[in-house]
Amino acid sequence: MVRAGLVALLLALALLAAAPAGAEGILDSLGCIARAVYWEARDQPFDGQLGVAFVVLNRMRASGKTACAVVDARGSFLGMAQHGHARGRDARAWGLAQEAALIAWQEPDADPTGAATYFHRLDVRPAWAERLTFTRRIGTHLFFRARTAAEATPSPATRPAAPAGQEK
Fold it and tell me: Between vectors from CA 130 to CA 125 and to CA 131, what angle results, nearest 5°?
């Protein structure tokens, strides 16, 4: 639907017009986030597309990198590796990807992923997922975040018992 793309563009222009000086990279950032959403999640429900947009933003916050640096990082997004900087060809899906990028940018509390910084499809099992905390499933994507210190250390109730005579 062309209307969704037009609405996203108008919202982005309004955001840019209201942005302080030095914010000229906003449109570039929104474009990079939209590319990631399109190539990684255009077949997902809108909440899943929004989730991918938030993964990019959450990685930005965690790393201090720009949206484009996050999206273009080698090995970070499989769909991006296959399609690079190509813009989506399906106008309706591209409009929805732009809308998800803009909503994520403007509404940080709308994150449906529980602060996820990683995700993968159900049909793959990356080794890195075992080292992270699962936050939510949306569509055919599983979302994860880094473990907190409390999650990384087993609680006393879940620690294996010490061998007899070696208790502390």
Answer: 135
CATH label of the domain that carries residue 30: 1.10.10.2520
Q: Is the pLDDT at 76 greater than 90, yes or no?
A: no
Distances (CA, A) of 94 to 56, 122, 159: 17, 23, 49
Q: Look up the domain containing 41 and give its range.
A: 2-18+25-111
57 in a structural domain: yes
Record the pTM.
0.76
| 119 CB neighbour count, 10 Å cutoff | 23
Find the helix or strand (DSSP H, E) in which 109 lies.
none
Measure the CA–CA gap between 83 and 48, rounded to whole angstroms: 20
Count of the separate structural domains present in the chain: 1
